[in-house]
Design brief:
Largest sheet of chain A: 6 strands, mixed
Oligomer: heterodimer
Distance between the termini of chain B: 46 Å
Order of helices and strands of chain A: EEEHEHEHHHEHEHEEHEEHEHH
Distance between the termini of chain A: 27 Å
CATH class of the largest domain in chain A: Alpha Beta
Number of helices of chain B: 12
Shape of chain A: elongated
Radius of gyration of chain B: 20 Å
Number of strands of chain B: 0
Helix content of chain B: over 70%
Number of helices of chain A: 11
Helix content of chain A: 25-40%
Radius of gyration of chain A: 23 Å
Order of helices and strands of chain B: HHHHHHHHHHHH
Number of domains of chain A: 2
CATH architecture of the largest domain in chain A: 3-Layer(aba) Sandwich
């Protein structure tokens, strides 16, 4: 569905993307994870065809998004973060109006657009279908954004930070909605988030973006177990603190205690590094401005 | 391949936006307030005679006021709407659907044109009831129609281009309101153009506003009143030529500018505008 090779983006003299490579396959839910300012939005906007890249090769649904046709538009959905647009419209009227554009693209296998009433029910807005948009809460508006994004039954759906500003309840409901979409509609989904927890919940595969490139590309499960492979052993001898990273902490500690200083070892502590630790230190380094170091560190930790 | 379908949707969108607008008390209030000001002014000066003619002020001023409101409405209306809707994500939504931009701009054209109806009606109806001798010859209504249509085609592209080029909605005041107010001031609506300096006359006659007012006066007033105008004539040919030129240039230029603006519209731009809007002091 998506092929990205050596994608580069430069604003002025600042390189935001320095060579991004990845692929997204049909029916996958892929999460682009990274600290704020890592270039997630830039990447997804380039794939949506809203932003022109500096260099690199991109294929989305068989076309280059920068020169994509209107037929291509009909097959992609974009969930936008609405703000105060269409204040006088109602969800039903707006969905009917925007859904209308997909009518010429309807096929027997994939009737377009969605039935409005069913869609309103899916996103839980049936009771508010005829209320003005100004009366909707933030969470309700965001669910309408999702409904508008999928009104044309897209083969591929883009979501940029979809749960930013959600309360925990709205967040859970939103996650369920995305999972339902992926299962029932066979929609391929690419979403961005800076929240590891969200990526682990939703994604079949997580791409970690840092230092302008993809530093990890794996399922949440194996990403976590890869990180868990490196543990830190800390101890002290005669008041001197020691630290050792190892793949096999059990064997290391056995040798340590049997060794010459075995009887002097105190304050023994084994810390299994979690994915969360690795990600948090990535975010910290990134926010301190050490983007390159952050990316290198994360690559080492998850090797 | 299917832009005709999108244009049909745009027509429906424009109609819907109009219906929603006249149902809102905010917009009703605006129409009534502006009509109250215009008709109130004419009423207060209903017995004032216009020098050099046997006409009363309402007869002479009403066509100019209508012309000014049309020019104002079709320039400032689209300028504000476009500036606002590229900030709040309306434009981006249409960019994300197939042929959505064709539909969006069709909708704008229809909406902004329909907006003139309540504006005209709220001024014309009370004026026709309150004042005599407004329309010298019923055939003038035909002139009203073509002057209005040509005037809309000439002036609306200016509004759309301003809306497309301004960096933010707040700047429409500086780049839209101000120049239009100045043009209104020098366009012979409040006092005859001939009494102003020569270079001001030239500037005024470059823009469509003066010609919209002149065209409207030629529609409403008797032929003798042409004596008050530059050259003592309604200059109908020149009106058609100037408004027509603006319309043609607008029709050619506006799609280019709008396409450029839409190409640059992204989610981050909308996000940035949102952040800018909550941060008043910078």
């Amino acid at each position: 569905m998506i092929e990205v090779r050596d994608l580069r983006m430069r604003y002025g003299d600042k390189d935001v993307l320095t060579g991004v490579d990845f692929a997204v396959h049909a029916d996958e839910v892929v999460c682009l994870l990274g600290p704020n300012g890592a270039g997630k939005t830039t990447t997804i906007e380039i794939l949506e065809g809203f932003r022109i890249r500096s260099a690199g090769e991109i294929d989305v649904l068989g076309q280059d998004p920068a020169h994509a046709t209107e037929d291509w538009r009909a097959r992609t959905g974009v969930v936008l973060q609405s703000w105060r647009d269409h204040p006088r419209w109602t969800p039903r009227r707006l969905l009917t109006q925007l859904g209308g554009y997909y009518v010429p693209y309807s096929t027997p296998e994939r009737p377009r657009p969605h039935d409005i009433d069913l869609l309103l029910e899916t996103v839980g807005l049936t009771g508010l279908a005829d209320n003005k948009l100004t009366t909707l809460s933030g969470g309700q508006r965001r669910r309408l954004d999702v409904a508008i994004g999928i009104i044309g039954r897209p083969d591929l759906l883009f979501l940029d930070e979809p749960t930013a500003g959600f309360d925990p309840q709205a967040r859970r409901e939103f996650h369920q909605l995305v999972q339902r979409l992926a299962e029932l509609e066979h929609t391929t989904i690419l979403l961005t988030t800076h929240d590891l927890d969200e990526a682990e919940k939703l994604a079949d595969r997580v791409l970690v973006l840092a230092g302008g490139r993809i530093v990890a590309d794996d399922s949440p499960g194996s990403l976590a177990s890869r990180v868990a492979g490196e543990s830190e052993v800390r101890w002290s001898v005669d008041g001197q603190r020691r630290l050792q990273s190892t793949d096999d902490p059990t064997a290391f500690v056995r040798d340590l205690l049997r060794g010459p200083d075995g009887d002097l070892v105190k304050d023994l502590d084994i810390r299994r590094a979690s994915l969360e630790d690795a990600y948090l230190s990535l975010v910290q380094q990134h926010e301190a401005g050490h983007t390159e170091a952050a990316a290198r560190l994360f690559t080492e930790v998850t090797r | 391949m299917r832009p005709t379908h999108a244009i049909r949707l745009g027509l429906r969108r424009g109609r819907l936006e109009f219906v929603q607008s006249i149902r809102s008390t905010q917009d009703q209030g605006f129409y009534l307030f502006t009509a109250f000001l215009a008709v109130g002014y004419l009423f207060l000066r209903r017995d004032t005679e216009v020098a050099g003619t046997d006409l009363l002020l309402p007869s002479v001023a009403l066509p100019s006021i209508l012309g000014a409101f049309v020019a104002f409405g079709v320039v400032i209306g689209p300028a504000y709407t476009l500036a606002m809707e590229k900030e709040d994500g309306t434009l981006l939504r249409h960019k994300a659907v197939p042929h959505g931009l064709a539909g969006y701009f069709t909708g704008q054209l229809v909406f902004q044109t329909l907006n003139l109806v309540p504006q005209m009606v709220t001024i014309l109806v009370p004026s026709l009831l309150l004042f005599d001798n407004l329309m010298a010859d019923p055939s003038g209504w035909v002139t009203v129609v073509w002057v209005l249509l040509l005037g809309i085609l000439a002036a609306m592209p200016i509004g759309m281009v301003i809306g497309a080029l301004v960096p933010s909605t707040q700047k429409v005041g500086t780049w839209g309101m101000l120049p239009v107010m100045v043009l209104a001031g020098i366009s012979g609506i409040f006092y005859p153009l001939q009494q102003l300096w020569g270079w001001v006359q030239v500037v005024a006659q470059v823009f469509p506003m003066y010609w919209l007012g002149l065209g409207m006066r030629s529609a409403f007033l008797p032929d003798e009143a042409a004596a008050l105008e530059i050259g003592g004539s309604w200059r109908t040919l020149e009106t058609v030529a100037v408004l027509g030129t603006w319309a043609v240039v607008g029709a050619v230029l506006t799609p280019v500018v709008l396409r450029r603006m839409s190409r640059r519209s992204t989610g981050s731009q909308v996000q940035a505008a949102k952040e800018a809007a909550v941060q008043w002091v910078r």
